[in-house]
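User: Can you predict the 3D structure for this chain?
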Amino acid sequence: MSREGVKAGDPQSLADISGKFGPVSISLSFELLFIHSFASSILRFQNMSSSRNVVRAFLVSLPLLCLLFASPQPSEQDWTHFVRIAAFGLQTKNIDEIVQRAADSNVSGIEVDNDITGRYDSFVDPTEKLNAIRALAGKAHQAGNHAFVYIAGTECITPHGDKAEHTLAKDHPDWLQRDIEGAPAIFGSGDAFWIAKGDEDVWVSPYAVPWRQIYMERVRQIAATGAP
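Assistant: Here is the predicted structure, written as structure tokens:
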């Protein structure tokens, strides 16, 4: 909703605000409205005697005071609001180490990165990496911790792409983003520090429907592992 579309006292505006920001913000909004209304009433009745001044200001502001106490109160915060995180590269063999290091450093949210969607081999077959995430999530939860997963967006790397028979660019050149002259978005080790020598780094167009369908299936599979 635009600022111009919000009118003072508009119930719909308050509903929109509540929907966007939740009970904490709407409760705060009523508090501010009450304070503003009470102060405005004091100024409005400033020519009257001080006692009548306060009483009339209070009565004018009473409806907002009732709304304040009737408004939803903040519930317990979600763990994501105050989590202390640390990131770890996930492999099947280092799961116990990750959980222990997180506990030793008072980490309450373990971010794991095994990049299912950002590596072409696991984009095609995510089984091994999904199993690693599932195992990590189970052990993190047993330790009273949380786990969540980093995944790449439209970037996808094929290790040793210069020698590999199958890479994303070789198998699906029509999926790639292209510049104004039609050149595909393919990069190598000299273009970014995270691209190893010989690796193929490509950026996929989100308009490539087959890629998008596979990508969203991988997201659903990751979510089904139980992390977080």
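The beta strands are 85-89, 109-113, 146-149, 155-158, 186-187, 200-203. Residues 9-70 form one domain.
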